[in-house]
Design brief:
By secondary structure, this protein is α+β, with helices and mostly antiparallel strands. It contains 3 helices and 3 strands.
Length: 111
Amino acid sequence: RDAAREVFRRVMDAVDPALVDRAERALTAVPGVRGVGELRLRWIGHRLRAEVAVVVDGEATVREAHRVAVEAEHALLHAVPRLTAALVHADPEPVPGAADPHLALAHHAVG
């Protein structure tokens, strides 16, 4: 019965919430990561793939933001069993009163 439930969860892309928590803890431990935005883990066959947005210093150079994103990806690969790939997007830390940099995408949002 437990095996059947696990297969069903994987078919539905369900990931153990403990793995998501583990991924988030690994990300927040990376120097330069000031926050974790949307974090998704998905099963693809018997392997996991991650997509995440990390918040970085809004004044960081592109090179610095990229370095933080690569270190975040590396931390995820070590922290999450069966994770084979991660796409890490670096978002600048919000500035009070400034427009959301993702505003141009808002009309594509589902839900």
